Amino acid sequence: MPASTTGADLTRREWVFAFSLVTSLFFTWGFAYGLLDVLNSHFQTVFGISKLQSTMLQLAYFGAYLVYAPIAGMFMRKYGYKKGIHMGLTYYSLGAIFFWPSARYEKYGGFVGSTFVIGCGLSCLEVAANSYISVLGSPKYAAARLNFSQGFQGVASFAGPMIASKWFFTGKNATSLYTVQWVYVAVAGLGVVLNILFYFCPLPEISEDAISEEMENSGLTVDQEPFWKQYHCIFGWVAQTTYVGAQVGVAAMAVNFFVGQNVGISKPEASQLFSYCQITFTVGRFVGVAILNFIDPALMLSIYGVACAAFALATAYAPGKGGVGCLFGLFFFESICYPVIFTLATKNLGRHTKKGSGLVVMGVGGGAWYPPAQGAIADYNTAHSYVVPFTGYVAMTVYAVGMMISQAKTGGFRFRTVDEIQATTKPKVTDSESFCDNDRKSTTPIEDKKVVEEFVESI
């Protein structure tokens, strides 16, 4: 494979192989994240700690992103995506195996430290996988591709709570850590197997220089500006920080929320309901894949952001089963937010792609400080604590609307999704149907690749 490679240079087989292999990584951190939220509640029982103290797990997990994501971005800029993936999987396996002595000797501090190591590994994987999937093909379908890949993270996220509800909270396991140690030994084994697979499997390197050259040939030179002037990326990091903080807070308190609604839900049942919430989230993500093939991502994020804010407030104040239903609605509308923010923030970065990816993934660190703020309120009233994530959704919505306005100033209002690289080579048009006609008539190298031309057909 040439050193200067873009997604358009890959054959159909190379594209499908690279896409499938990298997508497998999304399952790894989805499973770890799903288990984390259930452990949060389980440790309250085992160690006799408060809801606020239990959020130290979230602080360690997401604080690792804040610390390590920029380092991962710089590492991959120098050594490439594949070596970054190896580094991430190594940290992931090491952190998981450290759960065994922490459970064996019942040390909550050990769990917090091990979670930090896992978080460092997952920050590497997220910088690599999110960025790689985004640039692996036409920018027009970047949001849809990333939503599809992250859908498998959702599958793993509800598998974690389902395992926990069966093994962590039943019988003698309700007050012990015996099964926790063996689950994480298996998680460590998964990391080792993936590391071996990536070592023996060729993974085409997507070059920043090639992406920049492709943009320049299309008349886009925004990446020639210094990184600090890539405002859509800088503000995208802010939006990602507030959104992830809100999402993590919502999930961290979900089990406690179900129990606290006083409608006869026990803790094991609450854990199972939480897994159903994750299923709702996953279904919403795959629904988003279909919609994002046609609707502009910034417009979609604006609509979903308003819905998230509304359901967060309703969850905080709706009584009984009404609040439970609102929480399910919130999980559905959260589904597309992370990948869409990522693709909006990293689009047209060219030579700044890996640096920008590291910055936006660093926004996952918002999950370190939202849960403690929510936990402090939850110690008095769990339902009312959902006002905290409401603020995060508002900030995210402001970013989405800002991106819509920015796009409208340069190319008119967009209802349909467009390929900006292809669009810049055409005469300026203002209506969405003209964009679609131009796409059909284009004979650029990108469209010569069927798998890049139509993402849905590839899937």
TrEMBL record:
Top-level taxon of the source organism: Eukaryota
A Pfam match: MFS_1
TM spans (from-to): 15-36, 56-76, 88-105, 111-136, 148-169, 181-201, 273-295, 301-318, 325-345, 386-406
PANTHER family, A to Z: L-FUCOSE-PROTON SYMPORTER, PROTEIN TSGA
Gene Ontology molecular function: any one: transmembrane transporter activity
Keyword Manganese: no
Keyword Membrane found: yes
Gene Ontology CC entries for this record: plasma membrane
UniProt-annotated location(s): Cell inner membrane
Membrane topology: Multi-pass membrane protein
Protein name (record): Major facilitator superfamily (MFS) profile domain-containing protein
Keywords: Cell membrane, Membrane, Transmembrane, Transmembrane helix
